[in-house]
Amino acid sequence: xxxxxxxNGKSGILLYGIVPPKITSSQxxxxxxxxxxxxxxxxxxxxxxxxxxxxxxxARTKDERTFxxxxxxxxxxxxxxxxxxxxxxxxxxxVGKYDEAEFCEILRHAASGLGVFVGASSKNEECKxxxxxxxxxxxxxxxxxxxxxxxxxxxxxxxxxxxxxxAEKTADGCEFFITQAVYNVQNAKDFIDDYAALECKKVxxxxxxxxxxxxxxxxxxxxxxxxxxxxxxQRLQSSVDILQSSTALCAEMFDFIYKxxxxxxxxxxxxxxxxxxxxxxxxxxxxxxxxxxxxxxxHENLGFYVx
Length: 307
What we know:
Elements: H1 2-7, E1 14-18, H2 27-43, E2 48-51, H3 75-82, E3 89-94, H4 100-108, E4 114-118, H5 131-141, E5 146-151, H6 153-159, H7 162-171, E6 176-181, H8 185-197, E7 205-209, H9 215-223, H10 230-237, H11 242-264, E8 268-274, H12 279-302
Parallel strand pairs: 1-2, 1-8, 2-3, 3-4, 4-5, 5-6, 6-7, 7-8
C-alpha cells in the first residue's frame, strides 16, 4: 500500500503523474480517455498515480506563457468516474482556487486517502484560501488524509532554505513531498545535503521527471521555473531526437539522485509525469517509468535501501 510505504519512510516509491482532461471535453471524450488511460495504468508497475489540479501561474512572471492555460475537470472526479484502476491516487489541490466551504466539502468527500496541497504560485496571485489555513482545515475535517507538499529545489539554489520549509511543512502535517520536474541535478544534490544534515523528522522526497518532446516544451518548462543548465539545454537542442535524449537524461539524473540520497540516508522516490496528449510523449513517459523501476530494483537487489 502506497500510504504505508510513505508512513514507513520507504525509499524507492514510484509514481506516475497525469493531467485530467480539458473541462470542455464531451462525455464521450471523457469516457474514451478514461478507458485508454485505465488500460495504460493497468500495465504500469508503480506504487500509485498522481492526478494534478492545474493552476495558471501567469501571475508568477511577466514573461508570456508559452502554451495557453486550459482548465481541466476536477481530478477527484476524473479518478472516481473515469479511471477504472486499482492504483491508489494522490490528488493534487491548488487550494487558492477554493473558498473554505468548498474546500471543507472536498475533504469530507475525498475520493482518495492521499493528497497534495499546492499554494499560490505568486504573491500576486488572487487567492481564496491560503496554504496555512488549508492545513488547519485538513486537521479538523480530514485528519486521516495522508498529506503531501511541494518541494522546489530551484528555490534552494536562491535562498538555501528549502530544507527548512520542508521541515516546517512536515510539522504542519505533511508526510511526503513531491518536487517539480528536475533537470538540474546540482540543485537536487544541494537540497539533499542540507536536508540530510537537518535535525528533524525525515519523510520521503519524491523527485519528478518529465520527458521533453520539443524545443517549445523546453521553453515552457523554463517558463514554469524549472532550472535547465546551459550544457543540458545545448545537449537537448543539438540532439537528433530531443524526446529520446531527454528520456535518457531523466533516467541518468534519477540514478544519480537515488544513489546519492541513499548514501545520505534520505528516502527518495520518483514521479514520472505524462502531461502531453501526444502518443509518442506518453509512450516515452511509460518507457521512462519502466527504466526508473529497473534502477530502483537494481539498488534494492544490491542491498542499498532506506527504511
